[in-house]
Specification:
By secondary structure, the chain is α/β, with parallel strands linked by helices. Helices cover 37% and strands 14% of the residues. Strands 12-18-17-16-13-14-15-25 form an eight-stranded mixed β-sheet, with helices on both faces. Helix 2 links the parallel strand 2 and strand 3. Helix 2 crosses helix 27 and helix 13 crosses helix 14. The radius of gyration is 27 Å and the shape is globular.
Amino acid sequence: MIDQTSALAPYRILDLTTYRGWLAGRMLADLGATVIKLEPPGGDPGRGIGPFAGDVPDPEGALAWWAYNRGKQSATVDLASPEGRERFLSLVAGADAVIESFEPGQMEAWGLGLDDLLAVNPGIVFTRITAFGQTGPYAGHAASDLTVTAAGGAAWIASSDEDRAPVRITAPQSFLHASAEAALHTAVGLFHAAETGEGQQFDVSAQLAVVRTLLDALMHAYTDGVMIRRERLGKPSPYSPFTQLFECADGLVIAFTGGSLAQYRAWAREEGDSIPDFFEAISDEELKARGVALVMASAELRTGLAAWLETFFAKRTRHALVTGGMKRHLIIAGVNTVGDILEDEQLAARGYYQLVSHPGWQKPTRLPSVWAHLSRTPLLETPAAPRVGEHDAAVWKSGAASAGARPSRSATKPPSRDVFAGLKVWDSSWVGVGPLTTRYLGDYGATVVRTESARNLDTLRRIGPYKDGIPGINRSQFFAEYNTSKLGVGVNFTTPEGRELGLKFAAWADVVVESFSPGVMDRFGLGYEALKAVNPSIIMLSTSMNGQTGPRRSFTGFGTGLAAMAGFVDLTGWPDRTPGTPYGAYTDFIAQRFCGTAMAAALDHRRRTGEGQYIDVSQYEASAQFLAGLLLDADVNGRIRSRDGNRDLHAAPHGIFRCRDEGELDRWVAIAVETEAQWAAFIRRIGAPAWASEARFASLADRKAHEDALEALVSAWTADKTPAEVVEQLQPEVPAAPVLTGLDLFTDPQLHHRGYLHTLHHGEVGDIPYEGSQVIATATQPWPRKAAPVFAADTVQVLRDFLGYSEAEIEDLVAKGAVELGVAKG
């Protein structure tokens, strides 16, 4: 009998991934799947990548291995041998999915490509993670986290010092994005195979997973031709006249102060701070009405208030500022280190860390664990990462016995390109993570109804880029990009009739997603218990910055603040300067992938059991998963990693180097030499200069000891070349990639090869490109089905055809202010 208390309990996953894909299998294991990590004899090479427990190199003590392989079984197999491949195929026959992250074509070279796997198991889900995809002009390029970050556009726009090179986040991110994306699509593929018996391949591109994190940078390229570029964190702008980065008594905070000067002054009065006369002379009414305009109009006032704010923040601790800000509805976030995250009271209150004992280590370690709270199928408390071949006997004994029809498959439906055809989704979310989550469902064929109100418009409708540079609530490509494949309905849930309409939506829907501050849906009378009362099988997902519980549940703000809280600000920039930050709402693009995976798993559980459930996803907790190795290093070794420019512990040279400028545009190339073989190829391909044979560069340790000198020499070599010339000279043996801008990506040949951009017709702005999927699927390709809705354009259709209202009833709801049929352009 299959255990139904875990969302993915029926499934068996074969995990062939290198370190580039470990997270995918671990996420599926957290959700209850049996994940078998198949390692070569001697163990996965990633076990040799430090840091190690106690700083003692040991394949059983690699901390990243501990972080991303817990909950898996380990068995060894030599895929390079005919016998090993035969044994592997015996496991495939009884498995549900295979995940791999070898170089493109490696599985085919072993005779283990998609057709080979389908021959022994027609329902197998085959998920493949690579830097650029299985095919295309970049598919054969050597790659690293740094070069994928550069080619994905993230390095160009990360907030950093304009007088230095673009930077990556010091903790490698690109393949974690690809891994989380792979987990999501694997879960969707499992759902599809269980219903239809049809297997397929998912080809995940890490480059596109990075492109997805660019917020509005690529949109600008095809909307108004503006090129977003990096600038220093906290740099004042017309919208924010003061820095957003402040020193406080015990570190740094990010705060948005320009529009909240009256509240800061009131806070200072409460706590007895002195307030200068020029500040006291401005009334609260005037500050609230036109504070930013006042400050921007007077350099003297701006300078005086900036000095006062610096003093205000300097005398208070991060904790006092964050808690005081929440009390007063001010946006203040602490710039956390990984050490701060490890000891965070919010994470402790929600049971985020799991104590796990590792053989050979003297004490239990705290592993980042609970990235989603599912009420019916909670994430498993998974055991420690396995030892090499720990489960050989059990795995190989069960291999032949498990061949044949999988109990996870019912095959009751004919194959369809639309995995979620017939699934009804009520999208009551706004801004980023929630709409991005429901977009996955819509792009896979679900009917998604997006409700919103003109009384409290989605923030993104008021933010550009705007088509043709003309502002308007239906002209924002920012909103449009996150809301493809949806119908638009105008509803005011604050009215009694609006609440009843919400309950009607709940009775109609299979899924509801919301991303308001905790408690808002309950105040509408539309919390989970109320919705479950009218539809016991409904799945409701709530996502917020810190989750629905805990001392910081009421924290609100923007993505930059959560990036600071989750450690990414401290990890971006140069060690001798204050930090930078990933561009924009970086954590949104981590959280969307965890939300989507949790939802796909909950839908599979509902398919099998008919049960709905409530899902609480803290964007902070999901995002901290991407720092799991550093968090373990802090817990086990007491080492707090921080920003280090573009350098890497395990590679040199490893940086972004200036090339020949293109007119007034600075141009850069990323180069990452990660192995001695790559170092030898690098020397050969740049013409074997005399300096390359010097003893100070003989080994990685030597090159790290003389890294400043090495980087200067590489910079001299790249200075008179274009990025394309450097890449052509070094590839395919040495990881190298141009640092692409948003405008570059719009014409990037690899993106075009994968058909990433889709032109759709929008009701107001006409034909315009939309971004597609980071995956290419052979059977169920997700894609944007329709342009984002014009505000409330589908209200009458949805209320009449889906909820059964008559024309007269709809008119009555409009008269009572519960239903909105649209607003004037602009």
